[in-house]
From TrEMBL, chain A:
Domain Acyl-CoA dehydrogenase/oxidase C-terminal: 243-381
Protein family according to the UniProt entry: Belongs to the acyl-CoA dehydrogenase family.
Name of the protein in question: Acyl-CoA dehydrogenase family protein
Taxonomic placement: Bacteria, Bacillati, Actinomycetota, Actinomycetes, Propionibacteriales
Keywords in alphabetical order: FAD, Flavoprotein, Oxidoreductase
PANTHER family per UniProt: ACYL-COA DEHYDROGENASE, ACYL-COA DEHYDROGENASE FADE28
Domain Acyl-CoA dehydrogenase/oxidase N-terminal, first and last residues per copy: 19-100
EC number, UniProt record: 1.-.-.-
UniProtKB/TrEMBL annotation, chain B:
Obligatory cofactor(s): FAD
Protein name as annotated: Acyl-CoA dehydrogenase family protein
The Acyl-CoA dehydrogenase/oxidase C-terminal domain, residue ranges: 222-378
InterPro entries to which the protein is assigned, alphabetical: Acyl-CoA_Oxase/DH_mid-dom, Acyl-CoA_Oxase/DH_mid-dom_sf, AcylCo_DH-like_C, AcylCo_DH/oxidase_C, AcylCoA_DH/ox_N_sf, AcylCoA_DH/oxidase_NM_dom_sf, Mycobact_Acyl-CoA_DH
Assigned protein family: Belongs to the acyl-CoA dehydrogenase family.
Residue ranges of domain Acyl-CoA oxidase/dehydrogenase middle in the record: 116-210
UniProt keywords, alphabetically: FAD, Flavoprotein, Oxidoreductase
Length: 385, 397
């Protein structure tokens, strides 16, 4: 019997994943399985940048999955944030190394909401093909744009802008070809483009727990810069980056957590102790069930966030914080439980569980920790109650 | 109305529902008349055959019909006869001859004959298939002896559905048979069972040489487990046509209390409430996702978890409320067995707190639900079962 097409669920309904989205997911999953096996991730960990530029270009140019949420008039595919979230989920499952945070989650969303300019179009165009790595240096550490915490300031001489100051913990800051730096002026924040090789810029790469997610400290001394967004647009662009970034990272977290659940179930089904597969023991089985429930809740929150930002079905700030509050907590807890249920194997360098645990930590550490987003929800929901 | 060849689509079902509520305005029509018209029009179970309260339509059209009824001020049909609509109707439709089914289904649909479920026993809760109530054949009749428990509505019901052991010499699942039984049959005694809330919303049912005609057997002898399980799926797929609004339901009690008691606001409680709200919202969104998947014909694993998550959340919410209330949280205004069903009054939250302890037991304990998720959803290996393959009579109990 064919399903009636007359049910209430239409393509516009939240959580109604269209056939196109299902196909997109399958395509990215197959690509990751073929092109990004664990050895590729481990090679990236040992590399200078923490990722493989050639792989990133393939994702941008060959697969074309870096600009799905960017409007067509800006050179993107104009499909929507849900599609981009699907891609991120699959990339997260495979731990695809790349400038996901700096470029895909932050810089691209920021540029996408700016009034048209030649510079923004140029940056966006080269970022979407994967040829240029961008990073956003803005105070987003609590999950929202904090304009009073700007580390950089700027002075202007005609059309010539110069940036000064220190910005630390910039995701993909060392790998970036161009840095978008939020800088203070007397009238408010502006967003400036600083070339990676600009005179006066020194970048110090931090040594990170998750070797595929790098951070850098930027020391800026009279660095020449180009204006990307003026005081009217910069704060909004940074806020947009915070929200879209939150939703995309939540999707990545769901993907990673799901993969850890799958690996754990596989292990529990084959590992024999006391004469039986350990997954038959309720102590193990019930933990797996709890992991499953947590992943499903996180998936709901993450995709609600994507639909809310895409179609305006909910307050974007609340939806983004909800997604991150649930997904950050879930990814860490699921990865930690995965290590526990793998026993000693889970604690080895050789087995990939630690890669996911470390990704869970690095994901939760940028754009506001879970507790920051719980606080945001409290302010928006409870304090007004 | 409709031709026999082409069952109505969802739009036609909805239109028919509008006709019925227009002809029988819920506000002025007695409930049994309204539900009778609803049944006669084929709207009680639209996927059932015509003549048995159905239209042969797609099951997915049911929520649209129910919404029409609800919006016209009528009841959610389920509330008219909870067990009847929930599990009995589908079983009757599938396992009785049409003339018997017609005789049973109409009064079921109208609520004139309530139904109860005689499944659980003192010795068979989570392990339902191990139940011990015996049915022994005697000519055209069966003689039943045993005890059932947690039977809601037994004292008000005209009929019960009964699982009984007809063959103790085979493994537990294979020796059960499914019957329908008149609750006024000689030998049936119903005693109220009092719960920790003080109320008696369930019963114990004692069966002492109760005689059931063989014509009231549903399915083959020994096929009772199959018959019982064939409708369990119905409940899972009968998810509503809508998801409650954000902040409604259980969490609303916590938010309302928070609002009413600013004197009890502390940062610790604010955080605790926020985390509860987030859990409630993630749960609500998951239920919505399950609904969308089911409506699109691809029910996903989400539905398996909403019961488990919802019940544990329910408890956590009322634990928060009790703590927030302080000394007042230790009060209960009545333990009367006759206290009303709708929990209200000065200590409503305390009584809901007590009631919430049942949510992780009824309909599958949380432990069993985790086994179900582990084994049926995640496909983990089954735990060792000592009764596996053994004749029922040889299993310790």
């Amino acid at each position: 019997m064919t399903q009636s097409p007359t049910t209430e669920a239409t393509e516009a309904t939240e959580f109604a994943f269209s056939d196109d989205l299902v196909e997109l997911r399958q395509m990215v999953r197959e690509f990751c399985a073929e092109v990004v096996p664990e050895e590729v991730v481990r090679a990236a960990m040992e590399s200078d940048l923490g990722h493989d530029p050639a792989l990133w270009r393939r994702l941008g140019s060959e697969l074309g999955v870096l600009g799905l949420a960017v409007p067509e008039e800006l050179g993107g595919d104009g499909i929507g944030l849900v599609a981009q979230a699907v891609v991120l989920e699959e990339m997260g499952a495979a731990l695809v190394p790349g400038p996901v945070v700096g470029t895909l989650a932050l810089a691209v969303p920021a540029l996408s909401v700016l009034p048209h300019s030649a510079l923004a179009a140029e940056l966006l165009g080269s970022a979407l093909t994967g040829t240029t790595v961008l990073a956003l240096a803005a105070p987003l550490g609590s999950g929202t744009f904090e304009s009073d915490a700007l580390g950089a300031s700027t002075t202007r001489d005609g059309e010539a802008w110069t940036v000064h100051g220190v910005v630390d913990h910039v995701p993909d800051g060392a790998a970036a070809d161009v840095l978008l730096v939020a800088a203070r002026t007397a009238d408010g924040a502006v967003l400036l483009a600083v070339d990676g090789d600009a005179p006066g810029l020194s970048r110090t790469a931090h040594s990170t727990m998750d070797l595929t997610r790098r951070q850098a400290r930027l020391d800026l001394v009279d660095v020449p810069a180009r204006l990307v967004a003026d005081v009217d647009a910069a704060a909004g662009a940074c806020e947009q980056a915070a929200r879209v970034g939150a939703v995309l990272l939540a999707a990545e977290q769901v993907g990673g957590a799901q993969r850890m659940l799958d690996r754990t179930v596989e292990h529990a089904s084959t590992r024999l102790q006391f004469g039986q597969a350990i997954g038959a023991f309720q102590a193990v089985k019930h933990k797996c069930a709890d992991m499953f429930m947590a992943v499903e809740q996180a998936r709901s929150a993450a995709y609600h966030g994507a639909w809310a930002l895409q179609d305006g079905t909910d307050d974007p700030r609340l939806a983004a914080s909800l997604a991150r509050a649930v997904a950050s907590e879930t990814y860490f807890r699921v990865a930690a439980t995965a290590i526990q249920l793998h026993g000693g194997l889970g604690f080895t360098w050789e087995y990939p569980a630690h890669l996911y645990l470390k990704r869970a930590v690095s994901d939760a550490a940028v754009l506001g920790a879970a507790d920051d987003h719980v606080e945001q929800v409290a302010r928006q929901v409870i304090d007004g109650a | 109305m409709t031709t026999a060849e082409t069952p109505p689509d969802a739009g036609a079902v909805e239109a028919l529902a509008r006709e019925v509520v227009a002809a029988h305005p819920p506000a002025t029509t007695p409930l049994t008349d309204l539900m009778g018209a609803w049944y006669d029009a084929g709207l009680a179970w639209v996927h059932f055959p015509p003549g048995l309260g159905g239209l042969g339509a797609e099951r997915s059209a049911q929520p649209r019909a129910n919404r029409v009824l609800r919006e016209a001020g009528g009841p959610e049909p389920r509330t008219v006869n909870t067990i009847g609509y929930g599990i009995v109707a589908g079983t009757i439709c599938r396992f009785t001859p049409p003339e018997t089914a017609a005789r049973l289904l109409r009064p079921l649909a109208t609520g004139e004959e309530l139904w109860c479920q005689l499944f659980s026993e003192p010795g068979a809760g989570s392990d339902l298939a191990g139940l011990a109530t015996r049915a022994v054949r005697d000519g055209d009749e069966w003689v039943v002896n045993g005890q059932k428990v947690w039977t809601s509505l037994a004292h008000k019901s005209a009929w019960g559905v009964l699982l009984a052991r007809t063959d103790p010499d085979v493994p537990k699942h294979k020796g059960l048979t499914y019957f329908v039984v008149r609750m006024d049959s000689p030998g049936i005694e119903v005693r109220p069972l009092r719960q920790i809330t003080g109320r008696a919303s369930f019963n114990e049912v004692f069966l002492d040489d109760v005689r059931i005609p063989d014509s009231q057997r549903l399915g083959d002898v020994g096929a009772g487990w199959f018959v019982a399980n064939s409708t369990l799926g119905d409940e899972r797929t009968s998810l509503g046509d809508r998801v409650p609004a954000r902040g409604s339901g259980t969490i609303a009690d916590a938010i309302d209390l928070w609002r009413a008691r600013p004197d009890r606001h502390t940062p610790v409680r604010r955080e605790r409430l926020t985390r509860l709200w987030i859990r409630a919202e993630a749960h609500r969104l998951t239920a919505d996702r399950a609904r969308v998947s089911a409506a699109r014909g691809t029910p996903g694993p989400e539905s398996a978890i909403t019961k488990l998550v919802g019940s544990e959340l329910n408890q956590a919410v009322y634990e928060f409320c009790i703590d927030l209330l302080g000394a007042e949280g230790a009060l209960v205004d009545t333990y009367s067995p006759d206290a009303p069903d709708d929990v209200s009054g000065p200590t409503a939250l305390q009584r809901k707190f007590l009631r919430s302890r049942a949510t992780t037991l009824e309909g599958g304990t949380s432990e069993i639900m985790r086994n179900v998720i582990g084994e049926r959803v995640l496909k983990l290996p089954q735990e060792v079962r000592n009764d596996k393959g053994k004749p029922w009579k040889d299993v310790p109990r």
